[in-house]
Amino acid sequence: MPDRKMDIYWDANPFLSYVNEHPGRMPTLGALLENNAGGGVNTYTSSLSQVEVAFAASEQQRRALDPQEEQKIASLWSAPDAVSLVEYHNDIGQEARTLIRGAITRGWSLKPLDAIHLATAQWLSNVGFTITEFHTYDRALDKYGQIVGFRICEPYTAQPSMI
Length: 163
Fold this sequence. Notes:
Blueprint: E1 6-10, H1 12-19, H2 26-37, E2 41-46, H3 49-52, H4 57-62, H5 67-78, E3 84-86, H6 90-105, H7 112-126, E4 131-135, H8 145-148, E5 151-153
């Protein structure tokens, strides 16, 4: 039987780190995106990531948009095998609200967009995808792994690329 590809979910911040060329993260993110395009991993994210990844930090600092940065951002969503976008819908919204309300009972706080990302990954798991990990650089989300049923961790790879 052929090996099953690993299904992972990315929060928006790994994409932002990639666009901003965060020095400590680029080898890992580059390797993961290359591996995705090569068919080794299925990576999913909410279509809302397209809104969260609207500009590079350099554009924000200069208050000027750069066509090259726009092209780099657009390429994240247009590469057919790199990232699959999951459309937001009512089931995801209801689960996100449940996560936010559940956080209150634990004395936690969960931002709406973070809840949508967690709920999207959870919805994928519920409809037959095997989301094994949720990749984020937001360490405050780690504790939600016990609720959603998959590991929440920073992106990693056994073989970072040589950027």
